[in-house]
Structure formats: structure tokens, C-alpha cells
């Protein structure tokens, strides 16, 4: 018996698909006579037959003649000359394919197809992912993952290419708007993948009869009839949890733990209101307890949010690769039944703002604890800017995004707005300003220009807030100045810095340390980014004598958007632009 199948590109017409399949059958007959197994790829279709059934299964070890012997993947590119690719290329390409694969496997129509322009941090890609319609989601992910892993050797130096296999096909091209410091052949734009003049034909070497007319009939039957085979609900899972919380499979395309949705449902008691910690612009956060007693925090992203997928992938592709004691630990994620979930270590003391701006809780933050938190935040930012494998700009540093563990150690959280910089990149520009008014550097809020110095500015605001116990947002309503920064500079210039200090710190105060921190804070919020220190310099300054510091100039009277009067209240938290970050964790 001969088993036949085909895949046509999703958007081709029935007539185009039929013509492509007929042409493929003609070519496969001429090129693979008397073979038991054969596959052929055209630009718009793929045809495969075998004397054994391959439906709903992943072919792992066919004897394919390919670019690499025994490898069931074929690589093709229109780019004639190779180019030097930046170090981030493969990682960003994998992130793009991960997004498309998720879209393909979560499509309710079971087309298992996705085509889109995807922006992933540094790069913008045009991409296509398509799997066999009867292939389970996990196998589709595994197939695309394996294809992505081959890019580094079978398409090295190619900024556009196609990777084909009997189970899936992937296409990518670096969008022309992405800046790459190399000379390269121009990649075709979306929709302009030119027809391949040469067909790719692969066959096994065992003889048998071909029943190609029957194959064509089967193909056309499947194409015109509804695809009744339901996609398996088996969610792809990854390594990373003890106690068999996940399977032993690993999806290389994300290289990150995925937790079964049922485990999260049980941990959060079906996302009960009693377990809800807070609400952000793209979803609520819930507390959960795993079967072994470990407590977790689950961020549930809303799929109706226009930015949900972008920020989900930003968190997964960025924080998954970051390891530092002052960054919140992302334990895993879940993608199933239209859910997008991020699972973190639960921080029992929640966020810094709940202590700092609450007159009762603030008594727990003596100067020793505050100075430790200041140092921890600074070390975490230095890691992002200089010490991690990636150069990362957080873009939304604020008190509510600093979580505190049971020992009051700070953990920087919420990387949904973060951006990756190339090793030689110093700044970037955006038309979409995101972040929180009151913490934004002037050049970012007014011109969309951001850099590591944008985070330095936000750190300076946070530092002055920790010393004063007061918010920069809404400060003008107090009648003491245009902003907390202006007020702090005025006191510093009049040698009255001690008047800035939170009265609750009187008993625990270390005067020299506090004065030093005020000076550093004012340097960090200088109008000119070039006048602000780097975060590594801040670390040195925190342990140095302030007599060696430069003199700060008066900060610009910039407060961003005028805050509503409610923001001046001590129990309110400044909100992010477009409400993206989680910023209101009520006390429990």
C-alpha cells in the first residue's frame, strides 16, 4: 500500500495547489523511479509518499540525501554571498520562529500555518512556519526547533532562507528595516519569495511500485475536504522543574521550562480571586502553591492585548537567559488553551513601593535595609548593561518593579518593555515611548531616544525616592517644587540635604552614606545623558568618598505628564504608559 500526503502553502488557491501537486507528481516520477519513499518540494507545495504510514507522526530518521548526510532537513537561500551576522542573529531568529510556531499551533482552524512580520528586540523578520496539519503541537515545535538549530551551519551568513523537512517548513528573511553592519545581498520582501528554478527531490533507496494517480486523488481529496483531524492538545513542555512537574522533552527553540496548565490551575485554585495579587495592563498576577509547597507568582497575559505576545516573548527570550541574584527568577511559562502564562518565584514581601510609600510599612525599611536595596538594584542594572551575555535596557525601572524577597533583598522584575542592544550600540530611537512618567529620562520622554543612561536616570529617581520616602510622581502637588528632583537639588545647593531625608530614618541614619546617595542620585538625573555616570561607576561611588564626585547641575523641571491628584496619595502607584506593567499589588 502506498501512503501519500501533500502540503500547500496556506494562502495559495485550490487551483494553484492542484497544479503544483500535479507538477510535483510528474517530477517525483521522473526523478525517483521505483522508490519506496520519496519527497519533493516546490515553492508552493510539498509532496511525500511512503510504503508506511506517516500520518500524525514525526519522521525522525529517514535515509534522505540532503545538505548533511542522514539529515531530513534541506536548506535553501536566494542570497548568493554570505555576510557577517551579528552575534544576536541566531537567538533573535529562534525567538521569531517560536512566536510563529505558537501562532501556527494555536490557530483554532487547525491550519498549522503562520506568516507574519515579527519584531524581536534587535531584529525584524518576515517569517513563515507550516507543519503537517495532523502533526501534534509538540512535534510541530520540535520540528521547527530542529530547523532553527540548523541555521548556524546550513545557512551560515544567510539573512534569508528556507529550511524544509517532511514534517514542517520554515522561511525567514531579515527585514530590510533592520540595521546589520555587514554587506549582504538584498533579501526578498514579504510576498516576493521567488519561484525556485530547481526542485528539491529526496528519496529512499528501497524499490517499490508507485501509485501516483492514487496519490494525486488522495491529495486532492484531503485538500478539498475539511480537515477533520483535531490537533493534539498535548502542550510542548521543557526541562527545568523537579518532582516531574514537566516532561523530559525539551524545545530548543525556546530552551526554557514550560509548565503544564493543569499544574498552574491547581496551584492558583483555578485563578481564584482570593489568590489575585494585582492587575496590569496586559493581565493579572496570581499567587500559587505547587504540590511540593513551593510558592509561585503567575502572570496571566490577556490575549486580547495588542502587546501581549510581544511582551510575553520579551520576558521569555530575555529573562530566561539572565541569571543574577538581583533579578527576579522566571521559573517557566505555559502556552495552552489560549493562555499565555509566566511563572516566577513568589516574593513574600511583594514590591518596594508597598513599603516605601506606606507610612506604617515604611518603618520596616531602616537605613541599613534601604542602603542594601539601593546596592542590590545597582548591581542588577550593571548586570543587565554590562555583565550579561546580552546588553539590555530595562526601560521601566520604578519602585513597583522592584520585588523584595523574605530577607528584603531586591529583585528587578518586569522585562516586558526591555530592549536588547548590540555590543557596539549606544542608543536607539522609538516612536512608541513606553515606561512610567516621573521615571523617564527627558530625552526618552520627549524624543524617544533611549540608552543605558535612560535606566541610570530612572535609578536616580528611585534613589531619591528611597531617601525621602516620597514619590516623584505628583510631587508638585505638595507645593515644595516642580518635582522631587528639583526639590532635592534645591536643598543640596543650599546645604540643607538632611531636610530631604525620610523622618522615619532618624534613628538608623548613617549621615555620610545618605549624603553620598543624595549626591549620586542628583548626578544620575542630569539632563545631559553624557553627564550621568554609568551604573558600574555608581557601584564604585557607593563605596567611595563623595569628595571625589563631580558637582551636579540643576535638573530640568521635567515631570512628564501632569499626574492626576489621586497620584499624590500615599496608597496609589504611578502607572506605566499604556498600562503595560503590573503596578498595584494590594497588601494581603
TrEMBL record:
Keywords assigned by UniProt? ATP-binding, Disulfide bond, Glycoprotein, Kinase, Membrane, Nucleotide-binding, Receptor, Repeat, Serine/threonine-protein kinase, Signal, Transferase, Transmembrane, Transmembrane helix
Protein kinase domain location is 271-557
Q: What is its EC number?
A: 2.7.11.1
The keyword Membrane appears for this protein: yes
Check the record and name the Pfam families matching this protein: PK_Tyr_Ser-Thr, Stress-antifung
Against PANTHER family, the record matches this protein to:
CYSTEINE-RICH RECEPTOR-LIKE PROTEIN KINASE 10 (PTHR27002:SF814), RECEPTOR-LIKE SERINE/THREONINE-PROTEIN KINASE SD1-8 (PTHR27002)
What is the protein name given in its UniProt record? non-specific serine/threonine protein kinase
Amino acid at each position: 500500500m502506498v501512503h501519500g500526503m501533500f502540503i500547500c502553502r496556506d494562502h495559495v488557491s485550490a487551483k494553484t495547489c492542484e497544479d503544483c501537486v500535479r507538477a510535483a507528481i510528474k517530477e517525483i516520477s521522473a526523478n525517483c523511479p521505483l522508490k519506496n519513499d520519496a519527497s519533493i518540494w516546490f515553492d508552493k507545495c510539498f509532496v511525500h509518499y511512503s510504503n508506511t504510514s506517516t500520518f500524525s507522526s514525526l519522521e525522525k530518521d529517514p535515509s534522505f540525501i540532503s545538505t548533511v548526510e542522514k539529515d531530513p532537513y534541506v536548506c535553501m537561500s536566494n542570497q548568493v554571498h554570505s555576510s557577517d551576522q551579528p552575534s544576536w542573529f541566531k537567538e533573535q531568529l529562534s525567538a521569531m520562529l517560536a512566536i510563529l510556531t505558537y501562532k501556527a499551533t494555536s490557530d483554532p482552524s487547525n491550519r498549522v500555518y503562520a506568516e507574519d512580520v515579527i519584531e524581536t528586540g534587535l531584529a525584524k523578520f518576515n517569517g513563515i512556519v507550516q507543519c503537517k496539519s495532523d502533526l501534534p503541537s509538540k512535534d510541530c515545535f520540535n520540528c521547527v526547533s530542529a530547523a532553527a538549530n540548523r541555521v548556524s551551519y546550513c545557512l551560515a551568513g544567510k539573512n534569508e532562507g528556507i529550511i524544509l523537512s517532511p514534517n514542517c517548513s520554515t522561511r525567514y528573511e531579515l527585514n530590510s528595516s533592520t540595521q546589520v553592519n555587514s554587506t549582504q545581498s538584498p533579501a526578498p520582501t514579504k510576498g516576493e519569495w521567488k519561484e525556485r528554478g530547481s526542485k528539491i527531490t529526496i528519496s529512499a533507496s528501497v524499490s517499490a511500485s508507485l501509485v501516483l494517480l492514487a496519490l494525486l486523488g488522495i491529495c486532492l481529496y484531503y485538500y478539498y475536504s475539511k480537515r477533520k483531524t483535531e490537533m493534539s492538545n498535548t502542550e510542548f513542555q521543557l526541562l527545568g522543574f523537579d518532582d516531574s512537574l514537566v516532561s523530559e522533552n525539551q524545545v530548543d527553540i525556546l530552551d526554557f521550562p514550560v509548565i503544564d496548565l493543569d499544574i498552574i490551575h491547581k496551584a492558583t485554585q483555578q485563578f481564584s480571586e482570593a489568590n489575585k495579587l494585582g492587575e496590569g495592563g496586559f493581565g493579572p498576577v496570581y499567587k500559587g502553591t505547587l504540590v511540593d509547597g513551593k510558592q509561585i507568582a503567575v502572570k496571566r497575559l490577556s490575549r486580547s492585548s495588542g502587546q501581549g505576545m510581544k511582551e510575553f516573548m520579551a520576558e521569555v527570550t530575555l529573562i530566561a537567559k539572565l541569571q543574577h541574584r538581583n533579578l527576579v527568577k522566571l521559573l517557566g511559562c505555559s502556552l495552552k488553551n489560549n493562555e499565555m502564562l509566566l511563572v516566577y518565584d513568589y516574593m513574600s514581601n511583594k514590591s518596594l513601593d508597598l513599603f516605601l510609600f506606606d507610612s506604617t510599612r515604611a518603618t520596616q525599611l531602616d537605613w541599613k535595609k534601604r542602603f542594601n536595596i539601593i546596592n542590590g538594584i545597582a548591581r542588577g542594572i550593571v548586570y543587565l548593561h554590562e555583565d550579561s551575555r546580552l546588553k539590555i535596557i530595562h526601560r521601566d525601572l520604578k519602585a513597583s518593579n522592584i520585588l523584595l524577597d523574605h530577607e528584603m533583598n531586591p529583585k528587578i522584575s518586569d522585562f516586558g518593555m526591555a530592549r536588547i542592544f548590540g555590543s557596539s550600540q549606544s542608543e536607539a530611537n522609538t516612536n512608541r515611548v513606553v515606561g512610567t512618567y516621573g521615571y523617564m529620562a527627558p530625552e526618552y520622554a520627549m524624543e524617544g531616544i533611549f540608552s543605558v543612561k535612560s535606566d541610570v536616570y530612572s535609578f536616580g529617581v528611585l534613589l531619591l525616592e528611597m531617601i525621602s520616602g516620597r514619590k516623584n510622581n505628583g510631587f508638585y502637588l505638595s507645593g515644595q517644587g516642580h518635582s522631587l528632583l528639583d526639590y532635592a537639588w534645591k536643598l543640596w545647593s543650599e546645604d540643607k540635604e538632611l531636610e530631604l531625608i525620610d523622618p522615619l530614618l532618624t534613628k538608623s541614619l548613617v549621615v555620610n552614606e545618605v549624603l553620598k546617595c543624595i549626591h549620586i542620585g542628583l548626578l544620575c538625573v542630569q539632563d545631559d545623558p553624557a553627564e550621568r555616570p554609568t551604573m558600574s561607576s555608581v557601584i564604585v561611588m557607593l563605596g567611595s568618598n563623595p569628595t571625589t564626585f563631580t558637582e551636579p547641575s540643576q535638573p530640568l523641571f521635567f515631570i512628564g505628564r501632569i499626574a492626576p491628584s489621586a497620584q499624590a496619595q500615599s496608597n496609589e502607584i504611578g502607572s506605566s504608559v499604556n498600562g503595560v506593567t503590573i503596578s498595584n499589588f494590594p497588601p494581603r
